[in-house]
Design brief:
Helix content is 60%, strand content 3%. The protein has 265 residues and is mainly alpha-helical. Among the domains are: 42 residues, no CATH class; 116 residues, Cytochrome P450-Terp, domain 2 (Cytochrome p450-Terp, domain 2, Orthogonal Bundle), CATH 1.10.230. A hairpin with a 4-residue loop joins strand 1 and strand 2. Helix 6 crosses helix 9.
Length: 265
């Protein structure tokens, strides 16, 4: 077997030079590209436009942190047990990105992309009607299977998620209200009509749709949003080092568990 497969466009280094995305890191990237722009370039192989960068920044900011959540608790409690390994605490917080927390961004992007991919070609004279038909089919299929519709519903924001309103407004401002965001809005409307329940588009779902609209592969979205959550988790761990809550939480949980222990038979 030859070693021709052992190469990557993403990055390389020699004694004199480091390249990232085929560019000289020191000369062409540092001081020229933001982290958002570099992440976009690495995943999509192109630098974003100013509008695309604004949308991606908004999505990342919207998902960076939401307070004492399962992911931040996991990070803080891991730090309590191993304060010498902050990387382990960050990793613990990221591992909880799944179908309930943070993961809906990727799930929504995948769901919308699949619905658009499987749909019949839209007649050019009435694209809105064609998109509505896609929404109706996608929602019907999920409801018939007894499955939840990705991107809808939030345990706190039961009427409207403020992040969603802002992302749609930004996308309109930048001319980037694409098929994924438009389909998600129709999906929410169709779901409410079919079930009689109002489930708002959540911020994670809107973020996933927005990332798909600007060119991120839907399969990459769950990973991309972890860039945002990492910033929040690092902040939680800095705060944990200064004002610990991990140890008191553990002791309180242990006290309550012991107090509620059933009598032996």
């Amino acid at each position: 077997m030859t070693d021709d497969y052992l190469h990557t466009w993403i990055g390389s280094s020699t004694a004199e030079r480091i390249t990232v995305a085929g560019r000289d890191l020191a000369a062409d990237v540092m001081g020229s590209l933001t982290l958002t722009e570099l992440a976009f370039l690495l995943v999509t192989h192109r630098v974003p436009t100013a509008g695309e960068r604004r949308i991606v920044d908004a999505v990342l900011v919207s998902l960076a942190d939401h307070g004492i959540t399962p992911s931040s608790l996991a990070a803080r409690l891991t730090y309590t047990g191993a304060p010498e390994a902050i990387q382990g605490a960050v990793a613990a917080g990221l591992l909880g990105a799944g179908s309930v927390f943070l993961g809906p961004a990727g799930d929504t992007a995948m769901f919308l992309a699949a619905a658009l991919r499987d749909a019949a070609p839209a007649p050019p004279e009435d694209p809105a009607a064609a998109l509505l038909a896609v929404a109706e089919t996608a929602v019907s299929d999920l409801l018939a299977a007894g499955q939840r519709v990705p991107g809808l519903g939030h345990p706190v924001h039961r009427n409207e998620d403020p992040r969603t309103l802002r992302l749609y407004a930004l996308a309109r401002e930048e001319g980037l209200l694409g098929a994924h965001l438009r389909l998600l809005r129709m999906v929410a409307d169709v779901h409410e009509e079919r079930t009689g329940r109002h489930l708002p588009i959540n911020g994670a779902g809107a973020g996933g749709a927005a990332l798909a609209d600007v060119g991120f592969p839907p399969s990459s979205v769950r990973g991309v949003v972890l860039i945002a959550r990492t910033a929040g988790l690092v902040a939680h761990l800095v705060e944990e080092a200064e004002r610990p809550i991990g140890m008191p939480l553990w002791l309180e949980a242990e006290r309550r568990a012991s107090a509620a222990a059933p009598e032996p038979r």
